[in-house]
Amino acid sequence: MPAEDKNATAGQGADTARPGTRRPGGRTARTRAAVRDAVLTGLAEHGYSGLTVEYVAEHSGVHKTTLYRRWGGVEELIADTLDLAGEDRWTPPDTGSLEGDLRALATEVLRSFTDPATASPSSAVIAAAFPSERAAEALRAYYAERFARCEAIIDRAVDRGDLPGPRTALDAGALVRALAAPLFFRLFITREGLTEHDTEQAVTVTLAAARAGAFRKGG
Amino acid sequence: MPAEDKNATAGQGADTARPGTRRPGGRTARTRAAVRDAVLTGLAEHGYSGLTVEYVAEHSGVHKTTLYRRWGGVEELIADTLDLAGEDRWTPPDTGSLEGDLRALATEVLRSFTDPATASPSSAVIAAAFPSERAAEALRAYYAERFARCEAIIDRAVDRGDLPGPRTALDAGALVRALAAPLFFRLFITREGLTEHDTEQAVTVTLAAARAGAFRKGG
């Protein structure tokens, strides 16, 4: 999750605008946010295998039996945390050029995973998807929705003439993923770390491929 | 780890040619391979948090006290498993063209992470790097060495005239990582799964960027 998510979702999202608003299952926005914070802290501190409903109860102030009744268990708590993160109002950068937008997006990824305040919980959610199929599903839905929002960058680039159209011939999802993939790859697979040099290289490579027509569908 | 690793390292590597060869710390190649198999099985079955020295002892036939004395603990057992995987004789594909080599390499990644026999232990090692800094270090070393071998693909492409030289001006490491990154990204971050369509797209994008000069150093 980008750094912005956590703050943006703390009661500001469309569905969580007024703390106390009732949601299906009787969860209020305020309760959900408190539970979300406890889940992220617990994941960052103890990982998936060490996260318990007891821990979430203690750190959220929500009673254990309420957590069991309204969520069900640890897997559902993690999934709801990701659902909640996906309900924010985040929009992709809009700098006026394709290159600027891609650079700003890559920089957001860099910051969110290198800032100690957000890196641990974000990494912990990715880690939780290995042992938990339910967390993996929630992560898949989270990123699918995130990258769908990022396609606005491509819409604007085609409108502007920054990329040859027609827009429908372009695999915009593949283009925005091509930018993000090498960053996550260095962070979580090869474990080489991430610097501005790497984000700049991802921008250069993605732009060059896009301008050479590599993201044309069926091409 | 590619599918080939496990078999290739079972006593065939340069350092492990003769089962029984003595290694520093008194580990023999045969013992190391048995321990490696038990570690991978244990990781795949129980994950990092569930892997114990007792499990490895039981499944490798090596006594627990021997494991503690020669390795130290679970983290060192995982690290040695990765070290051993890195000692094989794997070489990158050599098909006669840059496009063919990249395609064959992407296909190897696809197979190793979708074949049930190899997918679980390989994923489990990546998962173990989240909670264990020692496993993360070993994973970093493993992939650094792996991608260094892959640079032979770029050497040959320049020699052949498939890529404009000089070779020293190219960031070959970035090129081979650009091919692999979107595959691992789909598998372990966005959790979208991986098909031949995706490997083909990775080849197209990487080739287009390479031919447009996006992997020139300082470019």
TrEMBL record, chains A, B:
Region (Disordered): 1-33
Regions recorded as binding DNA: 52-71
Keyword check for Transcription regulation: yes
Presence of keyword Metal-binding: no
Keywords: DNA-binding, Transcription, Transcription regulation
Positions of the HTH tetR-type domain: 29-89
Official protein name in the record: TetR/AcrR family transcriptional regulator
Species assigned in the record: Streptomyces olivaceiscleroticus
